[in-house]
Hints:
The protein is an alpha+beta fold. Helices cover 35% and strands 28% of the residues. The strands form seven sheets. The protein has an eight-stranded mixed beta barrel, surrounded by four helices. Strands 2-1-6-5-4-3 form a six-stranded antiparallel sheet, with helices on both faces. The termini are far apart.
Amino acid sequence: xxxxxxxxxxxxxxxxxxxxxxxxxxxxxxxxxxxxxxxxxxxxxxxxxxxxxxxxxxxxxxxxxxxxxxxxxxxxxxxxxxxxxxxxxxxxxxxxxxxxxxxxxxxxxxxxxxxxxxxxxxxxxxxxxxxxxxxxxxxxxxxxxxxxxxxxxxxxxxxxxxxxxxxxxxxxxxxxxxxxxxxxxxxxxxxxxxxxxxxxxxxxxxxxxxxxxxxxxxxxxxxxxxxxxxxxxxxxxxxxxxxxxxxxxxxxxxxxxxxxxxxxxxxxxxxxxxxxxxxxxxxxxxxxxxxxxxxxxxxxxxxxxxxxxxxxxxxxxxxxxxxxxxxxxxxxxxxxxxxxxxxxxxxxxxxxxxxxxxxxxxxxxxxxxxxxxxxxxxxxxxxxxxxxxxxxxxxxxxxxxxxxxxxxxxxxxxxxxxxxxxxxxxxxxxxxxxxxxxxxxxxxxxxxxxxxxxxxxxxxxxxxxxxxxxxxxxxxxxxxxxxxxxxxxxxxxxxxxxxxxxxxxxxxxxxxxxxxxxxxxxxxxxxxxxxxxxxxxxxxxxxxxxxxxxxxxxxxxxxxxxxxxxxxxxxxxxxxxxxxxxxxxxxxxxxxxxxxxxxxxxxxxxxxxxxxxxxxxxxxxxxxxxxxxxxxxxxxxxxxxxxxxxxxxxxxxxxxxxxxxxxxxxxxxxxxxxxxxxxxxxxxxxxxxxxxxxxxxxxxxxxxxxx
Length: 707
């Protein structure tokens, strides 16, 4: 074959796009590129003399030696290029080429540039990418799937462990998604999941990664995040946004969400540890009543078992008659007299003592016991109220699950008939969550109940699923202002008064009454009265009382309740009795935590600690709170925290930050997730020990000993 034939064959190969040729000078500027490739790369433009690095770039992880290195580095090293996948900007789009090249040297060994070949692999690359994407991404939502999230979590934790960095994992489960699927159909459920994915992407942007790991479960991976205050805010915003109404083929659906949070390295260093911790936190959030978030803590392992035991005991309690109804008065603001009592279920467990309704009601809902429990409570409340003099009403809570049962109206009718209570004296308190799912079924039930002549009250307004649309349609007689808005409404910079004002104005415009719940302090009482609430309820008037106590009060003819409570609201203090560590300088003491609030605590166990002393309170599991003594008497100290505690998403409080397992490992402890309880803190090496300044007292035994 002569030279002319050879050149003609090469020209044909180039023009057909089977293969192209390229060359650069010593400065990596193009001196030649096959004409057909040049036309694709830069139509109507001469590219000779342009730097190769300005036209193509490597695609990391796509094979070829050095693919994880940028092209300028590879060219500068003057090594051969072998099947290197590169991205090429071609006109308005992009192509992918397989690039090969070898350094071209002169007779004296001088580097003259590169010579090589290229071929178009765009279609093959895209097919491979699509196949890879299908394997790692959810086809319905476009989010990462379980496989990719597991892979990403494994890679992130491995890298972050070396660099001693943190990483948060949020697990989210949709509440009542099955109800939407069942009532509106699976296509509607798929559409809902796509909308949920879009909302999650707006909440958690880069560098967070979001995945759908199956069904209605999602994960959010957030690198370099261990501030539980910020994580709680993210979780709360997520719950609020996911809980807003959805439009699906002209229908309106509302769901909720629960979130569990775990943070590496505190709650786990390995992927399975962190996933299990987040899963336990999610389980606790759902058990707490749904629509909540919860941080992982070591005691959740025990609480999961405790929930199972309470569920079993609750079944027996209904049969054994361990439950009773207690009544809390709702006071008319106009004359401070009782107009209604709210019926609240009370459970005095023979071994556990009094169990909070916030604990066992969600368990009843989870275990399908709430129907039987609700029917019993309705019958008992009607029977008790029938014994009250005059027209005093009784309010009974109806769960969303009970409300959606077709038999509810018949159950109410039967309870009224059996007790002889006039329908006008029964008020049913219904939460906003009844509007989740089938709105038409809810409307039908409202009509059936109103036909019976009972009153309807909207409970917990504004806490999760508020919509003016259903207020316009639903025949409510009253709106209850949730205690979350009343509590702390007098604090500086609180927005709660504006919210309360808006709710009262709305109710007034719709000819509805309002009840302000959870009033506990005189300043709160004065404010909600001033803002125009028509009814008041809270410990400031009375705690829930037995039927016998209610009858005694009513038979005396005294229907007025006097407000008795503190002058001003202060952050809620939880009464406790547990041991904590107290650190002063380099001495450590043991004390008893008597109560705890966001801003401070009462501790006992150290004698005569001067006011103004700075202490570190070790709350356990790596939680250290810097505090200053504000009150001190004998062995009791009231301390104020430098940084307020935050909610753990349930009824507890926790610190924003914890001591890192990496710091504990540096001090000699094994590297692992934070263990339960208290443990030695890192010590500054070389620092001379000081003598203990205070005497430690054994408050449980009323004796003292030197620390």
